[in-house]
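Run log, item B.
One chain of 549 residues. Sequence copied directly from the ordering sheet:
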Amino acid sequence: MRFKNRFRCATNYGKGNSFNCKTCGRRGNRKGKKSKEGKTPAMRSEDLKSRSINSEAILSLNIRGFAVKGKFGWVRSICLKERQSIAVFQETRSKSVTDSWVQALWGDPNFGFLQKDAVGKLGGLLVIWDKSIFEVESYTCCEFFLAFRGKWKNNGEKSTIVNVYGPHNDRCKKRMWELLDKLIRSIDTKWLLCGDFNEVRSCSDRFNSQFHQNRADRFNDFISRNSLIEVPISGRKFTRISDDGVKFSKLDRFLVSDGFMSLWANLSVIALDRNLSDHCPLILRDRVLDYGLTPFKVFDEWFNCEEVDIIIKEAWGQEVRGTRKDCAFRDKMKNVKMALKKWSLSRFCSLDNEINELKKKVREWEIKADDNTLSDSERTLWLDCRRRWMEKERVKSNMLRQKAKIKWTLEGDENSKFFHATLRRKYNKCNFQGLLVDGIWHEDPVVVKNFIFSHFQKLFACNSYYRPRILGGFSSGSNLNFASVGPVVPFQRWCGPVGPVGQTPPIGSVQFTEGSGSVCLRISEEEASALEVFFFGGGNIGSNKGMCE
């Protein structure tokens, strides 16, 4: 299967002053005369002024027929609100659409579209894109999908997007997987497969409906063979609900390749309200939401560097502004975090460049050794370069392995592509995009944090005065990141020197620990007493108000 070198593209507007839409039956004209329903599908001037394209958003929806009354307006409102750059529709149940009808649906005159006609009143695929964002170069079509290839104008990267509408018949499903396999192997590009696959991956994707394990296995094998990644869906567990409200299934999804995920690093899928269709509209977006400070991580490799002990102890001994001891403790922790962060950037940011330089020198020595016999000093330099190269490769591999939180099957295996893909999968899975509260999807970090705070405040509510509280909600100043702090032992009086690294921390100390290394820092008797009074006496830990300033 090869891509065709031509594609059908919409013009700016239909010819003539009038049109009769064959899909929904509406009639209108360019002068704005209203149809029998009281609305014209033509573009309104206020829509043209308000619409701004989101270049990193794609809409997918099984519309189950555009001809049903009210669906055109519903889809139009989604397009105008979400401002996606590409929209793919399945089961349009139409044989042809006009340019003016697509323009009215899309909400912008600068568009292109492709269509696969329905067979009778079944099937049908439609793809619409914004020409200022994406430029289609070629496309291919079969009975199960419509694939189009093009490039993003903002960065020039090429990718292929496949609009899929899976069959119900088991034999046809096998045929669809074979055609998609052949298509993906035919060209090396960044892939995005989306739409209604009419198949699930596990029994948890169905409720009150029949599950076939062999069909799910074939679907999972297809995803594994082509190294595809499913983007998790937020907002809904199931994407399709039967008309009688009994059967629930997750049939719609987005599958991306590693290359596409590197192009859009912060992918997320939001399921919108089902409304007039039996399927939920899905929005794929690349959006970075700031939910405040991230946990502070410590790498095992840090403790192999002698200067780490000095940096931590110097940062811990710096003077802090807080007058209350608990606030002073918090500020000391911040000083340690910032000092380690600054040191880590200067120490490891150029690791790749150093590895490349050493590899280059090793190759030069090896080429020279092929032509002439090396002297003892030259051989020493050669082996030293190779030793340093292997050491830095080991450091890089250990840090990647710790980031990915997985174990290698073979010791010393260095499949960087695999680990980078694993890191992207892990980041994408843990990427928090919002919260569904009472059927409404919220993305504003302040609103989401308040909902979470209120939820846990109710769970841990107690009439006891002696329960400790944290003031300030989720303000950045009161966030205490203890991800890198080991267990804090009970607050008891203790005086004496700090113990050696690796030994059990004395009472009244804080232990920084990661892997096999640790650094113990002493808390003075005065500080321990203050923390004990504030914590067990029902005080407010780490507040930015009052005495903390």
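Observations after the first pass:
- Residues 146 and 237 are 26 Å apart (CA to CA).
- Residues 18-286 form a domain with the Deoxyribonuclease I; Chain A fold (CATH 3.60.10.10).
Flagged for discussion on Thursday.
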